[in-house]
Amino acid sequence: MQNKFDPSHPTIVTAFLTMIAIAIGTTFYLKPAAHSKASIPTLTEPTDQIALPPATATSDTFYAPILMYHHISDTLPAGPYVIRTKVFENQMAWLKENNYEVITYSQFYEALTTKTLLPEKSVVISFDDNNKNQYQNALPILKKYDYKAIFFIPTAYVDKREGVMTWEMLKTLVGDDMEIGAHSSTHPNLTVIPKAQLYDEELIGSKKILEEKLGISVKFFAYPGGAKSQSVMKAVENTGYLSAATTIYDPNHSYTENPYRVPRIYVGNSMENFVDFINGRNLHKSY
Length: 287
Ligand SMILES: [Zn+2]
Fold this sequence. Notes:
Radius of gyration: 25 Å
Oligomer: single chain
Bound molecules: zinc ion
Strand content: 15-25%
Shape: globular
Largest sheet: 8 strands, parallel
CATH class: Alpha Beta
Protein backbone atom coordinates (compact mmCIF):
# COMPACT_ATOMS: atom_id res chain seq x y z
CA MET A 1 0.00 0.00 0.00
CA GLN A 2 1.31 3.41 -0.92
CA ASN A 3 2.34 5.63 1.97
CA LYS A 4 0.48 8.85 1.33
CA PHE A 5 3.18 10.86 3.22
CA ASP A 6 5.99 9.49 1.04
CA PRO A 7 7.84 12.68 0.01
CA SER A 8 8.63 11.19 -3.38
CA HIS A 9 4.89 10.95 -4.05
CA PRO A 10 3.37 14.15 -2.63
CA THR A 11 -0.36 13.99 -2.35
CA ILE A 12 -2.93 16.74 -1.99
CA VAL A 13 -2.79 16.22 1.79
CA THR A 14 0.97 16.80 2.05
CA ALA A 15 0.72 19.80 -0.25
CA PHE A 16 -2.03 21.17 1.94
CA LEU A 17 0.00 20.60 5.14
CA THR A 18 2.98 22.29 3.53
CA MET A 19 0.85 25.34 2.73
CA ILE A 20 -0.36 25.50 6.33
CA ALA A 21 3.22 25.25 7.59
CA ILE A 22 4.28 28.08 5.29
CA ALA A 23 1.31 30.17 6.39
CA ILE A 24 2.11 29.63 10.09
CA GLY A 25 5.77 30.34 9.52
CA THR A 26 5.00 33.51 7.63
CA THR A 27 2.61 34.66 10.35
CA PHE A 28 5.13 34.15 13.13
CA TYR A 29 7.88 35.72 11.09
CA LEU A 30 5.93 38.83 10.18
CA LYS A 31 4.23 39.59 13.50
CA PRO A 32 7.30 40.71 15.46
CA ALA A 33 8.52 42.64 12.44
CA ALA A 34 5.21 44.50 12.13
CA HIS A 35 5.31 45.29 15.85
CA SER A 36 8.87 46.61 15.70
CA LYS A 37 8.00 48.77 12.75
CA ALA A 38 5.06 50.30 14.60
CA SER A 39 7.06 51.13 17.72
CA ILE A 40 9.84 53.08 16.04
CA PRO A 41 9.68 56.27 14.01
CA THR A 42 8.91 56.18 10.33
CA LEU A 43 12.09 55.71 8.38
CA THR A 44 12.86 56.76 4.86
CA GLU A 45 13.58 53.23 3.73
CA PRO A 46 11.67 50.54 1.84
CA THR A 47 8.90 49.00 3.91
CA ASP A 48 10.37 45.51 3.57
CA GLN A 49 13.46 46.54 5.54
CA ILE A 50 13.24 46.35 9.31
CA ALA A 51 15.33 48.72 11.43
CA LEU A 52 15.72 47.65 15.03
CA PRO A 53 16.35 50.19 17.81
CA PRO A 54 18.59 52.01 18.35
CA ALA A 55 17.99 53.22 14.86
CA THR A 56 20.44 55.65 13.39
CA ALA A 57 19.09 58.89 12.01
CA THR A 58 18.65 58.98 8.27
CA SER A 59 18.19 62.71 7.89
CA ASP A 60 19.82 65.74 9.46
CA THR A 61 16.76 67.07 11.24
CA PHE A 62 14.31 65.66 13.73
CA TYR A 63 11.10 66.78 15.36
CA ALA A 64 10.93 67.03 19.16
CA PRO A 65 9.24 70.17 20.52
CA ILE A 66 10.52 71.27 23.95
CA LEU A 67 7.69 73.12 25.69
CA MET A 68 8.64 76.11 27.84
CA TYR A 69 6.45 76.93 30.85
CA HIS A 70 6.80 79.55 33.61
CA HIS A 71 3.69 80.08 35.80
CA ILE A 72 0.80 77.64 36.11
CA SER A 73 -1.63 79.79 38.08
CA ASP A 74 -5.29 80.69 38.45
CA THR A 75 -4.65 83.75 40.65
CA LEU A 76 -1.88 85.75 38.94
CA PRO A 77 -2.98 88.41 36.45
CA ALA A 78 -3.10 87.18 32.88
CA GLY A 79 0.22 87.52 31.09
CA PRO A 80 2.35 85.87 28.44
CA TYR A 81 3.99 83.54 30.97
CA VAL A 82 0.90 82.68 33.03
CA ILE A 83 -0.96 79.52 32.07
CA ARG A 84 -4.23 78.64 33.78
CA THR A 85 -4.27 75.23 35.45
CA LYS A 86 -7.18 73.97 33.36
CA VAL A 87 -5.38 75.06 30.18
CA PHE A 88 -2.25 73.22 31.28
CA GLU A 89 -4.32 70.09 31.94
CA ASN A 90 -5.98 70.40 28.52
CA GLN A 91 -2.55 70.70 26.90
CA MET A 92 -1.31 67.55 28.65
CA ALA A 93 -4.52 65.73 27.62
CA TRP A 94 -4.03 66.92 24.04
CA LEU A 95 -0.54 65.41 23.98
CA LYS A 96 -1.94 62.07 25.15
CA GLU A 97 -4.89 62.10 22.75
CA ASN A 98 -2.59 62.93 19.88
CA ASN A 99 -0.15 60.14 20.67
CA TYR A 100 2.77 62.28 21.76
CA GLU A 101 5.39 60.57 23.86
CA VAL A 102 6.74 62.74 26.65
CA ILE A 103 10.48 62.13 26.94
CA THR A 104 13.03 63.63 29.31
CA TYR A 105 15.55 66.31 28.39
CA SER A 106 18.22 63.64 28.98
CA GLN A 107 16.62 61.41 26.36
CA PHE A 108 16.45 64.35 23.96
CA TYR A 109 20.12 65.12 24.62
CA GLU A 110 21.13 61.48 24.07
CA ALA A 111 19.34 61.36 20.73
CA LEU A 112 20.83 64.69 19.66
CA THR A 113 24.39 63.75 20.46
CA THR A 114 24.33 60.10 19.39
CA LYS A 115 22.31 60.88 16.25
CA THR A 116 19.69 58.29 17.06
CA LEU A 117 15.99 58.41 16.37
CA LEU A 118 13.41 59.34 18.97
CA PRO A 119 9.79 58.20 18.85
CA GLU A 120 8.13 60.00 15.97
CA LYS A 121 6.05 62.35 18.17
CA SER A 122 8.39 63.06 21.07
CA VAL A 123 7.91 66.10 23.26
CA VAL A 124 9.89 67.50 26.22
CA ILE A 125 8.23 69.54 29.00
CA SER A 126 10.32 72.24 30.70
CA PHE A 127 9.64 74.77 33.46
CA ASP A 128 11.71 77.88 34.20
CA ASP A 129 12.10 80.12 37.25
CA ASN A 130 11.21 77.74 40.11
CA ASN A 131 7.73 79.18 40.66
CA LYS A 132 5.90 77.48 43.50
CA ASN A 133 2.72 77.24 41.42
CA GLN A 134 4.56 74.71 39.22
CA TYR A 135 4.73 72.46 42.28
CA GLN A 136 1.19 73.22 43.39
CA ASN A 137 -0.63 73.14 40.05
CA ALA A 138 1.51 71.43 37.40
CA LEU A 139 3.10 68.58 39.36
CA PRO A 140 -0.20 66.79 40.22
CA ILE A 141 -1.20 66.89 36.55
CA LEU A 142 2.22 65.66 35.40
CA LYS A 143 1.93 62.77 37.85
CA LYS A 144 -1.62 61.99 36.72
CA TYR A 145 -0.35 61.53 33.16
CA ASP A 146 2.95 59.99 34.29
CA TYR A 147 4.84 62.70 32.40
CA LYS A 148 8.41 63.64 33.38
CA ALA A 149 9.59 67.24 33.01
CA ILE A 150 12.74 69.27 33.60
CA PHE A 151 12.69 72.19 36.04
CA PHE A 152 15.32 74.92 35.51
CA ILE A 153 16.04 76.53 38.89
CA PRO A 154 17.56 79.95 39.72
CA THR A 155 19.17 78.89 42.99
CA ALA A 156 19.75 82.13 44.94
CA TYR A 157 16.10 82.47 45.95
CA VAL A 158 15.32 78.93 47.11
CA ASP A 159 14.08 79.10 50.72
CA LYS A 160 14.60 82.87 50.62
CA ARG A 161 11.64 84.22 48.67
CA GLU A 162 7.91 83.73 48.77
CA GLY A 163 6.36 82.09 45.75
CA VAL A 164 9.27 79.86 44.85
CA MET A 165 9.81 76.17 45.53
CA THR A 166 11.74 75.26 48.67
CA TRP A 167 14.56 72.73 48.82
CA GLU A 168 12.06 70.27 50.31
CA MET A 169 9.75 70.74 47.34
CA LEU A 170 12.65 70.31 44.95
CA LYS A 171 13.57 67.06 46.71
CA THR A 172 10.00 65.90 46.12
CA LEU A 173 10.41 66.63 42.42
CA VAL A 174 13.58 64.56 42.35
CA GLY A 175 11.75 61.76 44.17
CA ASP A 176 9.08 61.90 41.46
CA ASP A 177 11.79 61.34 38.82
CA MET A 178 11.58 64.88 37.51
CA GLU A 179 14.81 66.34 36.11
CA ILE A 180 16.46 69.42 37.58
CA GLY A 181 18.55 71.86 35.56
CA ALA A 182 20.19 75.14 36.54
CA HIS A 183 18.81 78.53 35.52
CA SER A 184 21.72 80.53 37.00
CA SER A 185 21.85 81.76 40.58
CA THR A 186 20.30 85.25 40.49
CA HIS A 187 18.68 85.21 37.03
CA PRO A 188 20.68 88.08 35.49
CA ASN A 189 21.31 88.84 31.84
CA LEU A 190 24.38 86.63 31.49
CA THR A 191 25.72 88.58 28.52
CA VAL A 192 26.40 91.76 30.51
CA ILE A 193 27.71 90.63 33.91
CA PRO A 194 31.40 90.41 34.91
CA LYS A 195 33.12 87.20 33.91
CA ALA A 196 33.91 86.25 37.52
CA GLN A 197 30.23 86.49 38.46
CA LEU A 198 29.21 84.59 35.34
CA TYR A 199 31.52 81.70 36.10
CA ASP A 200 31.71 81.54 39.89
CA GLU A 201 28.21 82.47 40.92
CA GLU A 202 25.79 82.00 38.05
CA LEU A 203 27.18 78.87 36.39
CA ILE A 204 29.39 77.01 38.87
CA GLY A 205 27.59 78.21 42.02
CA SER A 206 24.09 77.25 40.86
CA LYS A 207 25.21 73.83 39.65
CA LYS A 208 27.13 73.09 42.84
CA ILE A 209 24.36 74.00 45.27
CA LEU A 210 21.73 72.02 43.34
CA GLU A 211 24.02 68.99 43.40
CA GLU A 212 24.81 69.40 47.09
CA LYS A 213 21.25 70.04 48.26
CA LEU A 214 19.52 67.49 46.05
CA GLY A 215 22.17 64.79 45.70
CA ILE A 216 21.93 64.75 41.93
CA SER A 217 24.16 65.47 38.96
CA VAL A 218 23.11 68.69 37.18
CA LYS A 219 23.88 68.49 33.47
CA PHE A 220 21.58 70.98 31.82
CA PHE A 221 21.10 74.76 31.87
CA ALA A 222 18.58 77.31 30.62
CA TYR A 223 19.63 80.90 29.84
CA PRO A 224 17.79 83.44 32.04
CA GLY A 225 15.58 85.50 29.77
CA GLY A 226 17.05 83.55 26.87
CA ALA A 227 20.04 85.94 26.86
CA LYS A 228 23.14 84.31 25.46
CA SER A 229 26.20 85.04 23.38
CA GLN A 230 29.04 82.96 21.98
CA SER A 231 31.12 83.60 25.09
CA VAL A 232 28.22 82.77 27.44
CA MET A 233 27.53 79.53 25.56
CA LYS A 234 31.23 78.68 25.82
CA ALA A 235 31.20 79.46 29.54
CA VAL A 236 28.24 77.11 30.06
CA GLU A 237 30.21 74.41 28.27
CA ASN A 238 33.42 75.17 30.19
CA THR A 239 31.66 74.84 33.54
CA GLY A 240 30.58 71.26 32.90
CA TYR A 241 27.05 71.50 31.54
CA LEU A 242 26.24 69.19 28.64
CA SER A 243 23.51 71.28 27.03
CA ALA A 244 21.52 74.49 27.41
CA ALA A 245 17.99 75.46 26.41
CA THR A 246 17.19 78.79 24.76
CA THR A 247 14.11 80.83 23.87
CA ILE A 248 14.64 80.30 20.16
CA TYR A 249 11.25 78.98 19.08
CA ASP A 250 11.40 75.87 16.92
CA PRO A 251 10.00 72.35 17.36
CA ASN A 252 12.59 70.96 14.95
CA HIS A 253 16.20 70.20 15.69
CA SER A 254 19.29 69.41 13.69
CA TYR A 255 21.70 66.63 14.58
CA THR A 256 24.41 69.20 13.94
CA GLU A 257 22.80 71.74 16.24
CA ASN A 258 24.93 73.23 18.99
CA PRO A 259 23.81 71.46 22.21
CA TYR A 260 24.25 74.82 23.98
CA ARG A 261 21.68 76.47 21.69
CA VAL A 262 18.69 74.16 21.95
CA PRO A 263 15.39 75.65 20.70
CA ARG A 264 12.17 75.41 22.67
CA ILE A 265 8.52 76.30 22.08
CA TYR A 266 6.68 79.12 23.79
CA VAL A 267 3.40 78.02 25.37
CA GLY A 268 0.50 80.39 25.99
CA ASN A 269 -3.15 80.00 26.99
CA SER A 270 -4.54 79.66 23.49
CA MET A 271 -5.10 76.04 22.53
CA GLU A 272 -5.06 77.03 18.88
CA ASN A 273 -1.62 78.58 19.30
CA PHE A 274 -0.43 75.58 21.30
CA VAL A 275 -1.33 73.25 18.44
CA ASP A 276 0.14 75.67 15.91
CA PHE A 277 3.43 76.10 17.77
CA ILE A 278 3.86 72.40 18.46
CA ASN A 279 3.44 71.83 14.74
CA GLY A 280 5.91 74.57 13.88
CA ARG A 281 3.32 77.02 12.54
CA ASN A 282 3.17 80.78 13.30
CA LEU A 283 5.98 80.41 15.84
CA HIS A 284 6.32 84.14 16.40
CA LYS A 285 2.64 85.02 16.41
CA SER A 286 1.88 87.57 19.14
CA TYR A 287 0.40 86.02 22.22
ZN1 LIG B 1 13.80 82.57 33.72
